[in-house]
Design goal:
By secondary structure, the chain is α+β, with helices and mostly antiparallel strands. 24% of the residues lie in helices and 36% in strands. The protein has 2 domains: 4-225, Rossmann fold, CATH 3.40.50; 238-347, Nucleic acid-binding proteins (OB fold (Dihydrolipoamide Acetyltransferase, E2P)). It is built from 8 helices and 20 strands.
């Protein structure tokens, strides 16, 4: 039996001559946390607005539990949404903001009071229920907006980059809080973000979009370790794309290390090889050793170390652990070794 909650079927959206979405197919499972991720202009916000009902697809349809909702107006879809601007009512108290959707649905005063009290405790704001939102901190306003969206027990919980305006520490704390709330209520959630770290941390499924198309939809681990193409590999994480050619016996040489290509490519095929920064190791180059590079940038970030190494007119990013004793400096000649088990090979487009 399928557990698909929202089925997006061949959805396209055009704005005049511009195609924002091109036949997007996506199944969102009940209770899952899905992140729509991609560069600016990739179509992720347009897709979220179509799900919410603020935009109508040019083609295709949306099925919620098997029912076509493509023509259903936003206020009748029963979805909760948190906007980037939060869109709270500054003249209302915290409790009044949270209860707003319940009042529109004409729930009883008792039900409103009980639901507001429950959510105030969940987001840990019962002590400021009567305070106006204009007097709140950024993190408190975020929690009020989330509580308001959850108050109506939404069929879908939609978020449009709601944490982007927060400072780094508060944002990290709110990411944890958001994931905990989603798991507590078990609500199917779709989040738009351009932040890879945020998406990797929150999502059950990552949907990477570019040029209006889904490039890959999979778990964060799968997207990171087994990217579907060079575009996904380049966008997610610190990946190096190295051009190479399949040799005899399907051997592939990267940084002077030869290994058998995992994919079944013919000799002479030009390929891109995605090499994650943490899957490259460095050692001092020996005299007259081939396949060396020169360190052109070095930094210690506490949790890890990073170097940029110039190899044949390409700068390769390398990342080492904090426990790595290597102290390579700018100007040092080094030899690079890639982990063949962690490489992804794609044909050149």
């Amino acid at each position: 039996m399928t557990n698909t909650h929202l089925n997006i079927e061949a959805v396209s959206k055009s704005f005049g001559p511009v195609t924002a979405l091109n036949r997007v197919d996506l199944k969102i499972e009940r209770g899952s946390f899905v992140c729509l991720l991609g560069p600016s202009g990739c179509g992720k916000t347009t897709l979220l607005r179509i799900i919410a009902g603020f935009e109508k697809p040019t083609e295709g349809r949306l099925l919620l539990d098997g029912a076509d909702i493509s023509e259903v107006p936003p206020h009748k879809r029963g979805f909760g949404m948190v906007f980037q601007s939060l869109a709270l009512f500054p003249h209302m108290s915290v409790a009044e903001n949270i209860a707003y959707g319940l009042k529109l649905r004409r729930t009883t005063a008792k039900e409103q009071r009980e639901r507001v009290e429950e959510l105030l405790n969940v987001v840990e704001l019962p002590h400021i229920a009567d305070r106006t939102v204009s007097a709140l901190s950024g993190g408190q306003r975020q929690r009020v907006a989330i509580a308001r969206a959850l108050a109506i027990k939404p069929k879908l919980f939609l978020l449009d980059e709601p944490l982007s305006a927060l400072d780094a520490k508060l944002r990290d704390n709110m990411q944890i809080e958001l994931r905990r709330l989603q798991q507590k209520f078990g609500v199917t959630t779709v989040l738009v973000t351009h932040d890879q770290t945020e998406a990797m941390m929150l999502a059950d499924e990552l949907v990477v979009l570019d040029h209006g198309k889904v490039q890959q939809a999979a778990t964060p681990t799968q997207v990171y370790r087994q990217p579907a193409n060079s575009l996904v590999a380049d966008f997610i994480g610190a990946a190096n794309l190295v051009q190479a050619e399949i040799g005899q016996n399907r051997q592939l040489a990267i940084f002077g290390n030869s290994f058998k290509a995992a994919a079944d490519y013919e000799p002479g095929t030009a390929v891109n090889v995605a090499v994650r920064a943490e899957n490259i190791s460095l050692r001092p180059a020996q005299a007259n050793e081939g396949s060396t590079g020169r360190v052109v940038f070095a930094r210690d970030l506490g949790a890890f170390k990073e170097w940029l190494v110039s190899v044949k007119d390409q700068e390769i990013r390398v990342r080492g652990s904090a426990s790595d004793d290597s102290e390579f400096q700018v100007g040092d000649l080094v030899h690079l070794t890639a982990d063949p088990a962690r490489l992804a090979v794609f044909p050149v487009d």
